[in-house]
Amino acid sequence: MTMAYQQKLAEKLTILNDRGVGVLLRMNYIKKTCSDSKLRPQFLMEKTMEASVKYINKKFPNIDFRGNSQQHLTSIQRQKSEVMMAMASYYDSFLDVMEFRDHVYELLNTIDACQCFFNIAVNFDFTKNYLELIVTYTSVIIMLSRIDDKKVLVGMYNCAHEMSNGSSDPAYPRLAQMLMEYEQPMKKLTEEFGPHTKAVTEALLSLQMLYPRRNLPAEQWRSAQLLSLLSAPAAMLDPTPCDTTACEYLSVEVMERWILFGFLLCHSSLNSNQSSQELWKMALRSGLYLTVVRDETINIHKVTEDYFDSLKGYSKRVADIKECREHAIANCGVMHRERRSFLRHALKELVKILEDEPGLLGPKALFVFMALSFSRDEVLWLVRHSENIPKTKTPEDYVDSQMAELLFYMERLRTLMTKYDRVVQRYHILYLAKFDTLLLNDTIQNMYVCPEEESILMTSFVSTLSELTVNQVKNGEEFDLRAIRLDWLRLQAYTSVSKAPLMLKDYPDLAKIMNMTQFHTKMVDNIQEMLHETSDLSILCFYPRVFEKMFSLSSEEVSMQRYLMSFPLACSRFSQCAHPLCPEEKRCLRLCVTFLEEIARQTSSIILDICAEQSNLNDQLLPKHCGQTISAARNKKQKKQTPKKEVQKAKPGTESQRKDRAIVTKSVSFHPCVLTQTVISLLSIHLCILIIYPTYLNLSTYHLDRRAVSWIGRTGTTQEISRPSDLLAGVRAYTASLHTLSRYLSLDVTRLVKNVLLQQTQPLDSYGGQTITTLYTNWYLESLLRQASSALIIHCPTMHCFVNQTSENEQSFKAEEYSDIVEMQALAELIGPYGLKFLSENLMWHITSQVGELKKLVIENMDVLVQMRANFDKPEAMVNLQKRLPAGDNVLKRMTIIGVILSFRAMAQDTLEDHCPYLMGPIESLRDLVSPDTDIKVTLSVFELASAAGLKCDIDPALVAAIANMRTDNTSIEEEYKLTCLLLVYIAVSLPMLALDPSSCYSREYGGHSNNIHCLATAVNQLSAAMFTVQNKNIEQHLKEFLLVASSTLLQLGQNVENRVDSKNRDSIYLLLHMIVEASPFLSQDMLESCFPYVLLRNAYREVYKAVIVTLG
């Protein structure tokens, strides 16, 4: 017994198991590194090292450094320090294997010497650690044998070491011998474990009651109502009764590894013990592959069969293996498929109940961990076998399109345990203090033998547990009961050795109570570790292809789409598989972002489809669609027969009518509740140092941007585009739908819509694509204004819009449907101030290009214009000069184009007045305070503010800026001033030419001329004001001069008998002069009367407004 205390078996088992996992991961990392051409050590790939590598492989372990062999190692000799440094980590890792092997040998021999007793139901932790150490050690040796370059790595390091230090590394002979021994790992391992057969077999046979009970088909689970809290409603609040608590959530995969590896190493018991043989065969029938580490698996049937074939007297076992393999291929797939189906429904029921009554997490915590453990086993079994699907008639059994649901409910159980951990703590603290402590104390009192060391440990259990109170939970104290669990493991070790004064197997009640107490202590301070133990799926990061396939299959299944978030949540656990001994091990973390992006894409698509459907329904309610209904009602009232060919359109609301509930309409399939579980509102997903917020991935702005642009529906051939009011109605319908969806999903609709609409006010969006602003700007410039410049479309002041000119060529669109007040207001709301600014800049560019051409015409005819300016009051001279002045119609045409553009801009700006109603008063007052004596910079600043608010200003600041930017260094202000004055003269003397154009007739219906020359009024006033402002000249004075020249030339129209024009056209041109004065803030009617008889204007108005007399023959 003294030896048991001194040997510290419990401590050694704990330390060696953790160390073994680290060494195993190092071996796996070295294997992966050496087999990957991108990660492979550089010296193994250099051509200069090829001879050395081949020589070391051939001569290992006895590498001769003298004689003729030196020529093979010259490349190592040249870079010995670099080689030694590069190979040091690999060499040290192999030394760790050797050191680990020595400690395992020593501990196993000590355990045999102590004749320890093993029983998973009694000394659970001691037995589990013992079997786990055996499997870990076996896995390390298997991985060591799979490293093809191990001899080269060790040999190159030793060569470099001897060349640098003059002698080999002291550990090299033993290390080289170990590598040679494990060339055939199974043969050497079975030799090593021969002496330990008795202890291993005893530990494994303790599973013969547990493993068959856990490895049942789904039918028996279903008949037993496994994991169901509703099977016994009266006992729902009772704690789960169990004598082997820890065994209930022990992984079946772990037990199978214990059994199959254990009986492979200690195979002699298979021929001598029928129970061993039955347990072994049952495990063989459960699957084809076992996990060695990460994604490294072993085909246990093949390995065992190959090894038993080399042994005498094992022909029956070989036949058993073949029979079990055939059974596994035929039945395993469907059995595990049925288990997953059962677990999906069982976990769903469990989650629903616990969500409704989280207080049940206390008494039924064991059910949660059992459910997680069972589910984890099934997921990992499918992952292992999906990568290695056997030849079977039913390969679909190895594919699961409903995996998302199982993963989702596993995550929900984890979330519930984490969220309500205080509930669980409170329950189990009461359980420990009020039940376990009393029961344990009574059991200790009834023991007839209790040595001092054991008595001290058990007394400490009672005293520590009795001090626990609920107030500690209320005060938020942190609990740490690991000492109790480690002491219980020590006590198991002390009482499991042969000839111990206190034999644990003689006191099964003590073992049962302590195993249950240990579980309760974990519920107080170690819930997260328990969750990791029972539901860790971090191994999935080493199966990216399988995991992505599962996600792809689940995303294709409509009923599974609501559970897709479980995949990125599973990725958040990948960081838990890291180990301090292998920090450089790479894990596939890109999967989380990939899954989230795909979920966001699918969710965006569904949400936008819902919005599109709602937008279509809203579109049916627009006034433009009611014409046919009104016409039909009118015809019915007047008893007119409707044409038979007309198909009656469905009225709004028919989409909601169903005669059969089985018929699913779009409005039903797109109900927001369908999306409720598609996107779970989670705070964040943690991946090591990376934190991903899925809320912001839910709805991609790119898709909404593209959808918004597609609404415009412009085509290159017909130049058709959606009306701004229709587009605005669609945007509002989408926004309303998104706000409705935000009640069900965590969508930040305000941020999303603002972001999208703000991008649409810019020339390009964040993805470099065209926006609504760009498309509408281009359309209005290229389609509407271009045709208005050709007089195919008329600016109509009376209706404040543009209208189509009646002509033989039918226009592809009606201009009034795109330019009336409603449409311009909708356009302003869509593209916003930034969009209007962009539109204004484009309009100004076209204006400045026309101004540039006008200046060229003025320069070409400067001499004639100078003379005309001096002699405008001399009719005879003006007649001669006009004959020498060409291109007058060109000047008027370009000025008309400028006027059309400015008129359109004014219509767009007028819509801004309602955007800031509370600021309009102060802005108007500020504008009215501006006088001619105010500094020009202050004036322009105030006018810029007023213009941005939609107010009309005497001087257009945008036009002033555009004209100012036209000036070059080659021209002086005086030259520009002279050109401007002559341009006004050019325009004034060219006005009579308009009377020769038949289309210059004034239309009282439109309030303007048929060829848009009424826009000259706007062009003359605004352009002259802008140009003289830039040149710092008096605007009023020069406009008076323009008025005098224009009046003089127009008065000559009626006196020139030779070129007599139609009186109606002449009157229309007289009205143009009146329009110029009316539109100008610098000219007045008094000024006009002083140079142009008012009687002519009065007669002109009477003539153009004269009613047409219709006579009947």
From TrEMBL:
InterPro entries (alphabetical): Nck-associated_protein-1 (IPR019137)
Listed GO biological process terms: cell migration; cell projection assembly; cortical actin cytoskeleton organization; neuron projection morphogenesis
Organism per entry: Esox lucius
A GO CC annotation given for this chain: SCAR complex
Protein name: NCK associated protein 1 like
Gene that produces this protein: NCKAP1L
A Pfam entry, by short name: Nckap1
Region (Disordered): 633-659
